[in-house]
Design a protein that fits this description.
This protein is mainly alpha-helical. The protein is built from 2 helices and 2 strands; from the N terminus they run E-E-H-H. It starts with 9 loop residues before the first strand and ends with a helix.
């Protein structure tokens, strides 16, 4: 189900459209993400975006491999 974001949720940042999302994490995962952010000296949001981008890239690679008959 795709929900259209409200105008307050959609921002134009550096010519990219971004959406603010609220996500609930198990406490242990949240704490691990916080530690990564502190170690890298970046925000927790940066860590989550970075991990999400890598996950999506991996999914796209896997889907392409499956279309080509590879596993």
């Amino acid at each position: 189900m795709r929900v259209k974001p409200s105008q307050t949720e959609v921002r134009n940042a550096q010519s990219k459209t971004v959406v603010r999302a609220s996500i609930t994490f198990p406490l242990d995962l949240y704490e691990a993400l916080e530690k990564i952010a502190l170690r890298k000296k970046v925000s927790l949001a940066w860590v989550v975006r970075d991990a999400s981008e890598k996950y999506v890239a991996g999914e796209n690679t896997e889907a392409a491999s499956q279309r080509l008959g590879r596993r």
